[in-house]
Design a protein that fits this description.
It contains 24 helices and eleven strands. By secondary structure, the protein is of the alpha+beta class.
Length: 549
């Protein structure tokens, strides 16, 4: 799509914005300003539009502009540290409301993808869809053995449509990046990149099937969360077959009460499931709105959730997962100095930040919340305000945390909907403590060391030569030393960590070898001396590995 071909679509976007009287957005983009002269052509807005708040008008405009703008609005709704609360609340209501495509086309796509007539694949295939969204729609079907399934089918031509609209959205992002007065805070190109990544994942149904399969394995007992089974023999990139499940939406309070389910227990379980997905499994459902989270009405004695739609899943790098968990613990324990220190150690803020000033800013945000009963404190709201405060201290945007922030908001919303009096802190704190004890226990550390030991021994002989070569190149002037003090300090810390790891590794290896020799050559001394040496060797390994983190 050339820039010239983008112009008509841009004009339509501007026209829709004008029709919904989103004047501030038009004024912010210089390219659109001449279009204000065309405002009389659109007449006065309908009374219902003119009376709506700006957030509702923006939501309606994005819905009219199509699926790609709906997705962009959904992403923006998660950035409450950047978007005003009234707009974020309205954007969170955005849903893909599109008419279904013909069932005959869905049948043809399934047959083309699975390379067989529909009658051989399924005993019955309902051409009337159960649900329809912007990317795909879902049809009910029955397997030859009588089991009920659902078949998710991508919309025809959706790949080309999405590619075209993404290019348009990128052009709009470039305009906003150049002209919007708050572009450095909103970072529109980052939002566009997040939308692109989200859509790329949703366009591959085999990837969605793999995500469902992993989440099902993580909750294999099915006691707390049930994930439908994937039928891989009936799945491809454009068609996904899943076990059909039955339940009620988690926001249908009347149906949940009618089933006799304990909503308080259900709400607490939802919070626990979130922390287990993020910090135990490092794989979480990132689109956990009520339409995708059901409740099993048949399980009254042990209530459980049912997960649907696995197109948007999240995970974190191991380091960020660790730093985030420690931040949550420090927040639960009101250790503001620790929060400030962790933000710098994680690299989310420059090392030049004054920790005392950052600690004071965090305390200023948090203390007013702790004057309320814990059951009235919104953890999601507090995290958003901490992000806003951190931006004043040059917080580096962490794209990998955007989905997590969105999911935290969704989960807390579901929990409070089920139980308005839920104490998120009381539920979350012990769960996170338990997960961290298990994740960073001595047993897990030893298991991880055993896994990495061959890698360390393989790399160890190369370290002296690498250091020698670097010094030689520096002496010949072929490699300049870094002049930046922060970079030098970082390199020095890395070298110290490496030396600690090597030293403890060599010490641990020597102690283990000594323990083995003592056991085999001098059994008359008993088991205790070699056992003590062996334990000391393992502790040396553990200390080095921990220090290297």
């Amino acid at each position: 799509m050339t820039r010239l071909s983008v112009v008509p679509r841009l004009l339509r976007v501007a026209a829709v914005l004008l029709r919904y009287r989103l004047d501030e957005l038009v004024d912010a983009a210089h390219l659109f300003r001449p279009l204000k002269l065309l405002r009389p052509l659109f007449g006065r807005p309908a009374a219902r539009v003119d009376a709506l708040p700006r957030g509702a008008r923006l939501r309606l405009a994005l819905t009219e502009l199509g699926p790609i703008f709906v997705k962009a609005g959904q992403v923006l709704s998660t950035r409450r540290d950047l978007v005003p609360a009234d707009i974020a609340d309205e954007l969170a209501l955005l849903q893909d409301q599109v008419p279904p495509f013909p069932g005959e086309a869905a049948r043809a796509i399934v047959e083309q993808e699975l390379k067989s007539p529909i009658g051989r694949l399924y005993a019955q295939f309902d051409e009337t869809p159960l649900a329809s969204a912007s990317i795909a729609q879902v049809h009910a079907a029955t397997l030859p053995d009588g089991r009920e399934v659902v078949v998710k089918v991508l919309r025809p031509g959706i790949d080309a449509q999405i590619a075209r609209d993404v290019r348009l959205l990128r052009s709009l992002g470039e305009l906003a990046q150049r002209w919007h007065p708050n572009a450095d805070k909103i970072r529109p190109l980052d939002v566009v990149a997040e939308v692109e990544k989200m859509l790329e994942n949703e366009l591959d149904l085999q990837r969605e099937g793999a995500s469902a399969s992993l989440l099902r394995r993580n909750f294999a007992t099915g006691v707390d969360l049930y994930v439908p089974e994937v039928h891989w023999e009936l799945t491809s990139a454009r068609a996904l077959t899943l076990e059909r499940v039955h339940g009620v939406s988690c926001d249908d309070i009347a149906a949940i009460d009618a089933a006799g389910i304990d909503r308080k227990a259900l709400a607490a379980k939802g919070v626990r499931i979130f922390y287990e997905q993020v910090f135990r499994d490092n794989f979480f459902h990132a689109d956990a709105h009520p339409g995708n989270i059901w409740v099993d009405p048949a399980r009254t004695d042990e209530p459980r959730f049912i997960a649907l739609d696995f197109g948007i899943m999240g995970s974190l790098p191991e380091a960020d997962q660790y730093w985030l968990a420690q931040n949550f613990i420090a927040l639960f324990e009101r250790d503001y100095a620790r929060i400030a220190q962790l933000h710098v150690e994680a690299g989310w803020m420059p090392s030049t930040v004054r920790l005392d000033e950052l600690e004071a800013a965090v305390r200023t945000v948090c203390e007013p919340y702790f004057t309320r009963p814990l059951s009235q404190i919104s953890l999601a709201e507090l995290v958003v305000k901490l992000f806003q405060t951190a931006r004043r201290f040059e917080l580096t945007l962490q794209p990998q945390l955007i989905l997590l922030q969105k999911t935290l908001l969704n989960i807390e919303g579901v929990g409070r909907m089920l139980d308005p009096e839920i104490d998120i802190w009381a539920v979350a704190h012990p769960v996170l403590r338990r997960i961290l004890r298990e994740r960073y226990s001595a047993r897990r550390t030893l298991r991880e060391m055993r896994r990495r030991l061959p890698e360390w021994f393989h790399a160890a002989p190369q370290f002296p030569e690498l250091v020698r070569e670097a010094l030689r190149r520096t002496a010949r002037g072929e490699q300049r030393l870094l002049a930046d003090a922060d970079a030098l300090d970082h390199q020095a810390r890395q070298v110290r960590r490496l030396l600690h790891m090597m030293g403890s590794g060599l010490l641990g290896a020597a102690l283990l070898v000594s323990a083995t020799l003592l056991w085999s050559l001098a059994p008359q001394h008993g088991a205790w001396p070699p056992l003590c040496l062996g334990v000391a060797g393992l502790l040396a390994f553990a200390w080095g590995w921990r220090h290297n983190r």
